[in-house]
Design brief:
Number of helices: 7
Distance between the termini: 13 Å
Radius of gyration: 18 Å
Structural class: alpha+beta
Order of helices and strands: HHHHEHEEHEEHEE
Number of strands: 7
Length: 208
């Protein structure tokens, strides 16, 4: 109770805004180069790439006060736009499997929470692997809680890993905690079988 009284709404909004401002898709230049390459050969697809990119940045730049939330359904839509862009770059090297529970679609998340996790999976799991790999996204709703699981294959021992500092993982974890407090669970790490898993569990309703 003391902790809740000490936290002011203004403080939370400022913290959310500061955290959200760090999120910018790192694939901007790759995407623009892809669109440029498609302008003459497939202008309709080039237009689609730019529309998907514009939507990603619209969400990234919106809600500057940091106080908004998004549904899991809208986060999945945004993530699928991101994957559509990356599929043009990686082709058959990138396989993404979606196993989505419609009952979980209304759960609230911080805006642009899911896409950075998929970007992380592509950057560290798919890109360094000579033959690419697979990402699996699964959502489930049960007992008033929603679970989101992202698994990605990891490159073999001979691959040259992309450098990383865990910023995306820490960012999403912090934003989930600010939105749902101790009701949010966030776990990440390697698993048997050469995969990396991110697991999120949040209540179906926002905390009061």
């Amino acid at each position: 109770q003391s902790r809740e009284k000490a936290r002011t709404p203004a403080d939370e909004r400022a913290r959310l805004a500061e955290l959200q401002s760090r999120i910018r898709p790192h694939f901007l230049f790759n995407t623009l180069n892809t669109a440029i390459a498609l302008v003459q050969s497939d202008p309709a697809r080039a237009e689609g790439v730019l529309e998907d990119l514009a939507e990603l940045f619209r969400v990234a730049l919106a809600d500057n006060d940091g106080g908004g939330t998004a549904t899991l359904a809208s986060e999945v839509d945004l993530a699928q736009r991101y994957i559509a862009i990356e599929t043009l770059r990686f082709g058959e090297r990138l396989t993404v499997q979606w196993d989505l529970d419609a009952a979980a679609s209304r759960v609230r998340l911080p805006p642009l929470a899911l896409q950075p996790l998929l970007e992380n999976a592509v950057r560290h799991g798919i890109e360094p692997a000579e033959n690419g790999g697979t990402i699996r996204v699964r959502t489930r709703a049960a007992l008033g809680r929603a679970e989101i699981v992202i698994d990605n294959s990891l490159p073999g021992s001979g691959a040259r890993p992309n450098p990383g500092h865990g910023v995306a993982l820490a960012n999403v974890r912090a934003r989930l905690r600010l939105l749902h407090d101790i009701d949010a669970q966030f776990e990440s790490g390697p698993r048997d079988g050469g995969t990396w898993r991110v697991r999120i569990v949040v209540p179906m309703g926002e905390r009061k």
